[in-house]
Write a structure and sequence with these properties.
The chain is of the alpha/beta class. It folds into two domains: about 60 residues; about 170 residues, P-loop containing nucleotide triphosphate hydrolases (Rossmann fold), CATH 3.40.50.300. It has eleven helices and seven strands. The protein has a five-stranded parallel sheet with strand order 3-4-5-2-6. Helix 9 links the parallel strand 4 and strand 5. The longest helix is centred in the first third of the chain and has 28 residues.
């Protein structure tokens, strides 16, 4: 005869008081398992606390990912390996090891529009977050606008310090738009100050020479881009647009093939 596994209101109140209320999610199941497998008291306690540690690790990781600005859908498990895209897999595997982050090196991901540069950079950010590295992801043009605005409320120095001390900074769509002297100076300061001190990932559809042309001050541009590339792993992606694979099921093609008009009979 099975013994009913009940959780008393008093036990629930105690667990919540010591901030272990989420243990109630699996407590009944664990009590049943302990009875079935005749677990000792310490084995049962270890099992219950392991559940709580796992929950907290997942919750903490999700919070850090949101704080970092990472798209929750762009994780490595969801990358479609069947896409008609080519890149050096040895370089990619090296980046996934995060040794470049430990060594305070950089990664430059280059390729045409839509091939998955942002996805792969974000996936690296998620890997870093899970390994408890601090990460910040932001589109380069959005970042520069935010830094300009921060000069108006005297928070600029604080914002720059946050960018300099993060373990991994991801600048998406770098040099997509032309940069004025202020923007160029910001990029120069960020890259130079982080050089050999912390890792930076840059995604861009422009080659280094084109990046230089987008920056207002040639001297600052050369100094920044040279430092960025001299300490970087370069991943070049080529192929068809990856975004087509991210369409919702049943979505219509953005550019459907036009059907020939039938001639009206007279």
């Amino acid at each position: 005869m099975s013994i009913p596994m009940t959780v008393t209101p008093e036990l629930k109140a105690l667990l919540r008081r010591v901030k272990l209320g989420r243990c109630l999610d699996t407590l009944t199941e664990r009590l049943t398992l302990a009875h079935q497998q005749q677990l000792t008291h310490h084995e049962f306690l270890e099992l219950l606390l392991a559940d709580e540690v796992t929950r907290r690790d997942i919750s903490s990781g999700e919070l850090r990912a949101r704080t970092a600005g990472l798209d929750p859908a762009m994780i490595l498990d969801r990358w479609d390996d069947t896409a008609n895209i080519t890149y050096d897999h040895r370089t990619w595997n090296e980046l996934c090891s995060l040794r470049f982050v430990d060594a305070a090196n950089n990664a430059v991901i280059i390729g045409p529009v839509g091939v998955g540069k942002t996805f792969l950079a974000t996936a690296l950010g998620h890997i870093a977050v899970r390994r408890r590295r601090s990460v910040h992801f932001e589109r380069a043009d959005t970042l520069l606008k935010r830094l300009k605005a921060s000069r108006l409320d005297n928070t600029h120095d604080h914002e720059v310090r946050k960018l300099l001390r993060v373990d991994l900074l991801i600048l998406d769509d770098f040099a997509l738009k032309a940069m004025d002297p202020i923007d160029t100076g910001e990029i120069y300061e960020i890259i130079v100050e982080r050089h050999r001190r912390a890792a930076t990932i840059v995604t861009s559809n422009r080659e280094p020479a084109e990046m230089l042309a987008q920056m207002a001050d040639p001297l600052l541009a050369q100094s920044a881009i040279d430092r960025l590339h001299s300490a970087a792993h370069e991943l070049v992606i080529e192929g068809e647009s990856y975004r087509k694979r991210e369409k919702p099921a049943g979505a219509l093609d953005d550019n459907p093939t036009p059907k020939p008009h039938s001639k009206r009979q007279r």
